[in-house]
Design brief:
mainly alpha; 22 helices; globular
């Protein structure tokens, strides 16, 4: 439902032609990074406010708002007379993306049966990666058209308009409706999803969640997240996954893949876009694989296997650039090795570290904290994304591209350790069972007479 989210990825190809039109951009790596990363500044603001918008106005209205802002940003970018108006348009696009990034996983998770919840949330990620692939197709389609980059950026707003129209016919989240005391509407939505016997169970689960929420404060603040030991542990795991998703370099690859291909010695804009299109296609295909495995192998195993492949791929990329010399900087053996490293990176990243952080974050927070924690963790994602996007070219110029990829490989090793130590398996567990995991991690396995291992085993059997 949200393929528009990363159609902002057209900037990777558009940047090649923006540099041709604006000499000031061509001469400044910092300005290039700012054009790319200003969308991330907007996304940070959108994600930070998205949790509140979700909790107050609902998931549906939040999505509609995101579509309007995104479409407006696309229009501003396409009409930009100078780099600075273009940057303002990127900020608007980012605002829409940030709100949508918080809203979509929560909406899908709350409207999905637990046995297919992971796959459906991952389908959201597939729409994102599919959007990235489409963005490269758009780039290729407009390479011979006058005003190339304006068409690339303007067309990216079309999916937002389409989604706005389709979203008008979608129901609100039944869980949000129930918690807002709109129980009849919630039951009507649930009745379209479940048969009579399952419907009664779901209503009972919502009633139990409502009673538990009544025992808590009516509203929660950002400070409340850190006052509760259980919530600190949950947020640390969720936010950590989001940070490592970015610091292992995915958006370095997606934003700058044509630039990286040119760094590897393939100087033609068209060839760089074609090779990048192949990389984006593998990203979408890998996400399809992840949709299957996330509910069959579990979130934690999938993340770990993904990270191991990412480490190997980043080492290949590092070696390919370190071995290049000025004499061989012509797209030869090591140039093709760099392209192979990019392809392998996507092949390993897309099925695991692409969907897992979003899926886990849609599952690990109690209802009363879900909106605010989802917004906070998404903000961490966008802040991390901004740091990587704003510094990649500068670090590559200062330390060398090979060393830069080696640094990313080291971060991926730290991510493996983090997942092993801090991230629980949530496969097949209900929201109440996931809450119990955090209680037991915070206060010991004897609390409430259950143990974490039992819950995890139950999830593995589901």
């Amino acid at each position: 439902c949200v393929s528009l989210l990363l159609l902002k990825g057209v900037i990777s190809g558009a940047l090649l032609y923006i540099k041709d039109d604006f000499q000031i951009v061509k001469q400044s790596s910092f300005l290039q990074e700012t054009i790319v990363s200003m969308a991330l500044v907007g996304a940070m603001i959108g994600a930070a406010s998205g949790g509140w918008i979700n909790d107050y106005y609902g998931r549906k209205k939040a999505t509609l708002f995101a579509d309007v802002v995104f479409a407006a940003g696309a229009i501003v970018m396409a009409a930009a007379p100078d780099p600075y108006i273009l940057i303002a348009g990127r900020l608007l696009v980012g605002l829409g993306v940030g709100v949508a990034s918080v809203t979509a996983p929560v909406y899908i998770a709350e409207a999905s049966p637990s046995e297919v919840r992971g796959g459906l949330v991952s389908t959201n990620v597939l729409m994102i990666t599919g959007g990235q692939f489409l963005s490269y197709l758009v780039n290729s389609a407009f390479t011979q058209v006058s005003g190339t980059w304006r068409w690339m950026l303007g067309v990216s707003g079309v999916p937002a308009v389409v989604q706005f129209g389709l979203m008008l016919f979608m129901p609100e989240s039944p869980r949000w409706l129930y918690m807002k005391n709109r129980k009849e509407e919630a039951i009507q939505v649930l009745s379209k999803m479940y048969d009579i016997s399952r419907l009664e169970d779901e209503i009972n689960h919502l009633s139990a969640a409502e009673e538990e929420e009544k025992l808590q404060k009516d509203t929660v603040s950002y400070l409340d997240v850190f006052k509760s030991k259980e919530m600190r542990l949950a947020f640390f795991a969720g936010a950590g996954l989001q940070a490592f998703q970015q610091f292992t370099g995915i958006n370095t690859v997606m934003y700058y893949s044509p630039t990286i291909v040119q760094m590897a010695g393939f100087h033609s804009n068209q060839l760089a876009l074609l090779l990048s299109l192949i990389v984006a296609g593998m990203n979408a295909a890998g996400t399809v694989v992840g949709i299957y495995f996330i509910d069959h192998c579990g979130r934690k195993k999938l993340a770990l296997s993904s990270l191991c492949g990412v480490i190997v791929s980043l080492i290949i990329l590092s070696v390919s650039f370190l071995k290049q010399s000025d004499v061989t900087y012509d797209g030869g053996l090591y140039g093709w090795l760099a392209v192979l490293g990019l392809a392998l990176y996507i092949a390993f990243f897309a099925p695991g570290m692409g969907p897992v952080p979003w899926t886990v974050n849609s599952e690990i927070y109690p209802q009363q904290y879900r909106g605010i924690c989802g917004g906070m963790s998404a903000t961490v994602n966008w802040v991390s994304n901004l740091i990587v996007a704003q510094t990649f070219l500068s670090i590559a110029e200062a330390a060398g591209t090979g060393v830069t990829f080696l640094i990313l490989a080291g971060i991926a090793v730290m991510a493996v350790i983090f997942v092993i130590v801090f991230v629980p398996e949530t496969q097949g567990l209900t929201f109440l069972e996931v809450e119990q995991i955090w209680k037991e991690r915070a206060w010991g396995s004897s609390r409430d007479g259950n143990n974490m291992e039992g819950l995890l085993e139950q999830g593995s059997r589901s």
